[in-house]
Design brief:
alpha/beta; globular; TIM Barrel
Length: 281
């Protein structure tokens, strides 16, 4: 995949920073200790895949304080309050940014969210090492993000298999048809199509519309980035998407829970509502 020097530099810097952080954290907290925590101290994972299927609208509400392209998105960032509010507003799962250097996130944010909610929690980060998967489960997350653009095939398959061995089906993010073909050949089941262009960081919903037809029916299709209106959700659902990851649209609002209710209620699409016509889910 060819990307511009600007975006390539950002991606490389993020992944390099994660690898450096992992190397340090491995020395402080060995994988053996994480395995013991998972086996003896952590509750069984909640079913992320099931939360994204069945009747009703399926929104993965993303908790994100900042991003390298947007800067600070939400200065008033209280993970427990946000998580509880978004669950009550109708989110079927949460995504929590945990990358520290570029997104101002932390695992502590995820742990706070997990403690106060009953819906599945996705760890959104740059996962490049098996140690991070054990760390993710030990922190109480129920799923994690795998980004095809930053993983070779061998590493991707290994991380996918490890996640499944821990009953955490990962959300696999793609940006292009080539990436989609790669992850499908490896057996990915939850496919997230990111509408953000890695070349210039612009967002185009056409990416979702172009790729959804190539996602098999037995996979769960998730559209990510740039989803702002009820009409966006209806069109994408009719195109074949099962779920939607929405972050900045909510985090920039004074009351994210109210913003989510407003996004859902005009369609009568609360998460428990059955479909009753072509415009409902």
């Amino acid at each position: 995949m060819e990307i511009s020097a600007r975006s390539k530099n950002i991606l490389e810097r993020i992944v390099e920073a994660r690898r450096e952080s992992i190397a340090h954290r491995k020395r402080v907290l060995p994988e053996a200790a994480l395995r013991i925590a998972v086996e003896k101290k952590v509750a069984l994972p909640r079913d992320f895949a099931s939360a994204l299927t069945g009747p009703g609208v399926h929104i993965i509400a993303e908790m994100k304080k900042a991003s390298p392209s947007r800067g600070v998105i939400r200065s008033d960032f209280a993970p427990a309050l946000l998580a509880a509010d978004l669950e009550q507003a109708g989110a079927t799962a949460l995504s929590v940014l945990t990358e520290e250097d570029f997104f101002s996130g932390s695992l502590a944010d995820l742990k706070e969210a997990s403690r106060v909610t009953s819906i599945p929690i996705l760890r959104k980060d740059f996962i490049v090492d098996a140690w991070q998967v054990w760390e993710t489960r030990a922190a109480g997350a129920d799923s994690f993000l795998l980004i095809a653009a930053v993983l070779d095939d061998e590493t991707f398959r290994a991380l996918l298999a490890l996640g499944r061995s821990l009953n955490m089906e990962p959300l696999v993010e793609v940006h292009t048809r080539e990436e989609l073909e790669r992850v499908l050949s490896a057996g990915a089941q939850i496919i997230g199509v990111n509408n953000r262009d890695l070349q210039d960081f612009s967002v185009h919903l056409k990416t979702s519309f172009e790729l959804v037809q190539a996602i098999p029916q037995d996979c769960i299709a998730v559209s990510e980035s740039g989803l702002r209106t009820r009409e966006d959700l209806v069109r994408l659902n009719q195109a074949g998407f099962d779920a939607f990851l929405i972050g900045e649209r909510l985090m920039r609002q004074d009351d994210p829970g109210h913003a989510l209710r407003t996004l859902l209620q005009p369609c009568g699409l609360e998460k428990s509502s059955p479909a009753s016509d072509e415009t409902q889910w």
